[in-house]
Amino acid sequence: MAVATTTETGARPVRAGRRLSLPAWVGTVPFLGYVGVFLLLPTGIVLFHAFQNQSGGFSLSGLKVLGDSTVRGFFVGSAELAAVTSVIGAVLGAILAYAVASGNPDGVVRRLYLAASGVLAQFGGVTLAFAFLATVGPTGLLLHASWFYDFPQGIGLIYVYFQIPLMVLVFMPAIDGLKVQWREACENLGGSAWQYWLHVGGPLLAPAFLGATLLLFANGLSAFATIWAWENQIAYTVPQQISIALSSEVGLANANESAVLALGMVIMVVIVMTGYVLLQRRAARWLR
Amino acid sequence: MAAVTSLGESSLTAPAKGRRGMQAGRRRRLNLFRYLVFTAFGLFFILPLLATARFSLEGSQLGTWSVAAWKQIVSYPGPPPLLSSVEITLELAVITSGVVLVLLVPTMIWIQLRVQWIGRVFEFLCLLPLTIPAIVLVVGLAPIYNFIRHYQLSALQLFWAYVILALPYAYRALSAGLGAMDVTTLSEAARSLGANWFTVIVRVIAPNMRQAILNAMLLTSALVLGEFTIAYLLLYNNLQVNLYFISRATPNAAVIFSTSLGALIFAFVLLLILSYVGRRRARG
Fold first, then answer.
1. Is A57 on the interface with B (CB under 8 A)?
2. What is the pLDDT of residue A43?
3. Which end of chain B is more exposed for a tag (fewer CB within 10 A), N or C?
4. Is the confidence at residue A11, as pLDDT, over 50?
5. What is the pLDDT confidence band of residue A254, given thresholds at 50, 70 and 90?
6. Beta bridge partners of residue A52, listed in sequence order
């Protein structure tokens, strides 16, 4: 930082004469403007609508929607789906990440798994619903699962399919951070593999693991495309209901339902992501 | 790390033997574990893709084979025609990557060089979209897009929102690239040779982070190719939305399987390229 200040003062004489009036932060204005209009403004609009009554004035009456038992059911459904798939995804993903990380760091296997993980974790969406329809749907090739359209097991299976790759991507750096020397030190002291994982590796990875699980939870909460392609008639989760509310909102009794639901989701995700950031910071203490 | 270990072993022969024996046993167990895991997970991940592939090759009669569905990608009538939404999506990928780069690269370099105190705010803003799900963002974007629609109806307008979705991923890729070089020294050298700030950013520093820029572009493109939520809820028609509507109109239409598998493979190849690009940067 000190060096940068030197640059600044060193550069001054060249520029000072010509553009005296513009401070350096002006260079960030295009970015700030863009983010202001397309990220902060929409977020503000959601908040604004959530606290608005029918006639447009400020009120907390819109929030009553959150007390409704049906609406609470959507939140419970979302949390249930996210919890189940994040825990399963985290455990299985951690195992896979360890298997991938323990191989050649420059090898083809690692490359393939990481590229595939990137695709399946972020690219999934509608495609994954199709893929599972073809595999275990009513006319599926592998089996005709009677529970394919059941909540949460049917959609949960599809969610696990993208939660595992996400776990691999997020958890891999933590496993890579485990130093060989720690393992050797443990072995030199006569520790078994079991003792190593219980007393050294496990505690070291625990914060990273919990943090990654929270990230998966947030991911499960906010996913929409897959569940909508899977079932668009019955809403089980908040994202589905937001979509239904958005498309039928004009002139209905609870005109701001989608904004209130969205606000509820933001609150949930922010709580979870705060936990994630704190745990990441804790994990970074050793794994670097 | 492996080099350090083997050096230590050769200097102390006697204990090294014991350890090597222990490690060999461990390695065998580890390899067994790895093969089991790769097989199990490989099956879990490949089966749905194989089923998709089989459905995409289904003939007109059940159980027959045909490549008709793959040919249909270019001819499926819609409305709107499937090919037109493929084109729109590819164009969106290009536009979005371009805008992301123009927005991020100069700003990031500028912040690093001149206004570091703004760096934390900048990072926060870039990572913020991770905590605001697309389904929430779209609720707030709807009024803004109502406004945009007064002037321009094309689905290409989606890029405004897609840039925001891509911010966290592009930011991470670019900041890794920026961190890998000595920005201050480079800019001091250029400045003392008489370059202005524009030259420093565009002709000195940006070319040094070519790989990071390519990474950011590939990640952004992959994201745009798979985007559904925002396009669907803002009533635009991109590739995923079109596939969704085809599947609603004709369940099990072979063309949805061929197209989505094609898109998946395309994204996979993009990311595989990225992994090789990343390796070259690490070495060079």
1. no
2. 93
3. C
4. no
5. low
6. A58
- Provide the 8-state DSSP code for B202: I
Instruction: For residue range B186-221, list pLDDT tens digits in order.
Output: 989 999 999 988 898 889 998 888 888 988 898 898
Shortest distance between the Cα of B36 and any Cα of chain A, in A, equals 9
Lowest-confidence region among A31-45, A118-132, B184-198: A118-132
**Same domain, yes or no, for A31 and A74?**
no
pTM of the model: 0.83
Radius of gyration of chain B (CA): 25
Q: Where are the domains of chain B?
A: 2-56, 76-283
**Mind listing the pLDDT tens digit for each residue in A265-280?**
999 998 998 888 888 8
Q: Which residue has the tokens 């006697």?
A: B14
Closest residue in B to A249 (Cα–Cα)? B139
Which domain, by its residues, includes A32?
26-59
Interface probe, candidates B120, B132, B146, chain A, greatest A C-beta count within 10 A: B132
Of B1, B130, B240, the CB nearest to A126: B240
Assess: ipTM above 0.90.
no
CA distance A39 to A44: 9
How crowded is residue A159: how many other Cβ atoms within 10 Å of its Cβ? 27
| CATH number, domain B76-283, options 1.10.10.10, 1.10.3430.10, 1.10.3720.10, 1.25.40.10 | 1.10.3720.10
For residues A154 and A224, give the distance between their C-alpha atoms in angstroms, rounded to a whole number: 15
Residues of B in contact with A241 (CB under 8 A): none
Closest partner residue to A119 (CB to CB) among B37, B187, B268 is B268
pLDDT at B22 > cutoff 60: no
Closest approach of chain A CAs to the CA of B113, in angstroms?
A: 6
CB contact under 8 A, B260 and A127: yes
B73-130 pLDDT, tens digit per residue, is 887 887 788 888 899 999 999 999 999 999 999 999 999 888 888 988 999 999 898 8
> Are residues B191 and A123, on separate chains, in Cβ contact within 8 Å?
no
Give the nearest chain B residue to A193 (CA atoms): B26
- Chain A residues close to B135, C-beta within 8 Å: 222, 224, 239, 242-243, 262, 265
Contact across the interface for B184 and A7, Cβ inside 8 Å:
yes
Task: Name the H helices within chain A.
Answer: 2-16, 29-35, 41-50, 69-101, 108-123, 126-136, 153-176, 180-188, 193-196, 202-222, 225-230, 238-247, 257-284
Asked if the model's pLDDT at residue B257 lies above 60, the reply is: yes
List C-alpha distances in Å: B38 to A157, B106, B273: 19, 42, 22
